[in-house]
Specification:
heterodimer, A: about 40% helix, B: about 375 residues, 5-stranded mixed sheet, 5-stranded antiparallel sheet, 6 helices, 23 strands, about 30% strand
């Protein structure tokens, strides 16, 4: 996972939880540290950033984290609510 | 629209309120829910009737944590509510997190606002990536008494259920797109080294450190400012920005709207009563003068003496030749003045009193 060096572990958990809840990230097979560009987390992050009109970096930058920490509706942005 | 296009097969739907939050009086909850349904019935052929006996199509409840629907709430903040797509049993139902503090005003979280969003899901809408849409997933609060559906919301609900039965079809505002060739501005200003443009409820912000424009609600930064700012200018020396609408103005420093505002433009700046609004304004940091554009004239205000200069107003066409007789927005940057009118922008060199370039209004956004 090509996270910014200063990204805290807590932030990584926020990212993973957020993507699992709202972007259909499957927990199985996801490892936080994967080689750059190959992680499903990166792809989901890009999808999330595009949806919210953020700069599409695939990295959990400050702006992305800020959006993830905002209060929101519990219905996913992609895929059905099961 | 929700994947699979789920929808109610009937137009007249029922709802029930299964329990009430203790945060609000019962009638306030009833009122918020009724108004939230009205947001959607106003733009579609749907009707909503509250029932207290039998099983309603849309059941509304307030729940703590795990409430046996496979989607537990997470305590205060975070997830505020969720709702299910149209269908039998739990289908259409809307659940609100009782760990939130529900309000009927600007404080977090306004029940009417959240309920209107959730009922969009109850009717078959998914989330919108349009930040101005009610169906945008993040909570953004503006006016507690006026939820305005965007055109995106209206297009969505009408794609599912058809147009409204009203003779005059409802329309809603669209969110400005930085690269829209037809983009025009209500106002523009420099702001601590950045440029900010204003349009309806939104700002478009261009930072020198970012190639793309950020678009968001004006209320995100300054909740007490009104929509539709008509003019804005920065006085860099004082680290303030003034915003104008009608004959009132507000002063902000950073994210704070300074206390005591709005004030009247007539009392502070000495405009005659005939001036009811400012079209555009900019400050020249070298001379300490602020220029106000009103119809086809401009006025000059001395920030040090705090008074309007003598012999003003003057005709815009005389001293700013080439920009036309009226402007929408203006700011000064690096010894040039940038005037905006419609979709055009005029780069003006004040020393030589001439337009040196005519650009698209959105040239700052690297489209």
């Amino acid at each position: 996972f090509p996270a910014h060096l200063e990204t805290k572990q807590q932030d990584l958990e926020i990212v993973q939880n957020y993507l699992e809840k709202f972007y259909d990230l499957k927990t199985e097979g996801v490892r936080i540290a994967k080689k750059k560009g190959s992680s499903p987390v990166v792809e989901k992050l890009k999808k999330m950033q595009k949806f919210f009109g953020l700069k599409v970096t695939g990295k959990p930058d400050d702006e992305t984290l800020k959006v993830m920490k905002q209060p929101r509706c519990g219905v996913p942005d992609v895929s059905q609510f099961a | 629209i929700t994947e699979g296009n789920p929808k109610w097969e009937k137009k007249d739907l029922t709802y029930s309120i299964e329990n009430y939050t203790p945060d609000l009086a019962k009638e306030d909850v009833d009122n918020a829910i009724r108004k939230a349904f009205k947001v959607w019935s106003d733009v579609s052929p749907l009707t909503f009737t509250k029932i207290s006996q039998g099983e309603a199509d849309i059941k509304i409840s307030f729940n703590y944590g795990d409430h046996n629907d496979n989607s537990p709430f997470d305590g205060p903040n975070g997830i505020l509510a969720h709702a299910f797509q149209p269908g039998p049993h739990i289908g259409g139902d809307a659940h609100f997190d009782e760990d939130e503090n529900w309000t009927k005003d600007h404080r977090n979280y306004n029940l009417y606002r959240v309920a209107a969003h959730e009922f969009g899901h109850s009717l078959g809408l998914g989330h919108s990536s349009d930040i101005g849409a009610l169906m945008f997933p993040s909570y953004a609060f503006s006016d507690p008494n006026d939820i305005q559906l965007s055109q995106d919301d209206i297009d969505g609900i009408q794609a599912i259920y058809g147009p409204s039965d009203n003779v005059i079809q409802p329309t809603g505002p669209t969110t400005p797109q930085a690269c829209d060739r037809k983009l025009t501005f209500d106002a523009a200003t420099t702001f601590r080294g950045e440029k900010m443009f204003f349009k309806d409820r939104f700002y478009l912000r261009k930072s020198p450190y970012d190639s793309e424009a950020e678009v968001n609600f004006i209320s995100l930064f300054w909740p007490s400012l009104p929509h539709g700012i008509e003019a804005a200018h920065e006085v860099a020396e004082k680290d303030i920005v003034r915003f104008f609408k009608g004959n009132k103005y507000w002063v902000i420093r950073g994210l704070d709207v300074l206390p005591g505002y709005p004030k009247n433009i007539h009392n502070t700046f000495g405009f005659p009563k005939t001036v009811q609004k400012i079209d555009a304004a900019f400050s020249d940091e070298y001379t300490g003068k602020t220029y106000f554009f009103v119809q086809n004239k401009y006025w000059r205000y001395d920030e040090q003496r705090r008074s309007m200069d003598a012999d003003f107003p003057k005709l815009i066409t005389n001293d700013f030749p080439g920009i036309g007789s009226k402007v929408d927005a203006v700011f000064s940057d690096n010894e040039f003045i940038y005037f905006f009118r419609g979709t055009r922008q005029y780069k003006f060199e004040p020393q030589k009193k001439r337009v040196v370039a005519v650009l698209k209004s959105n040239s700052w956004f690297n489209c």
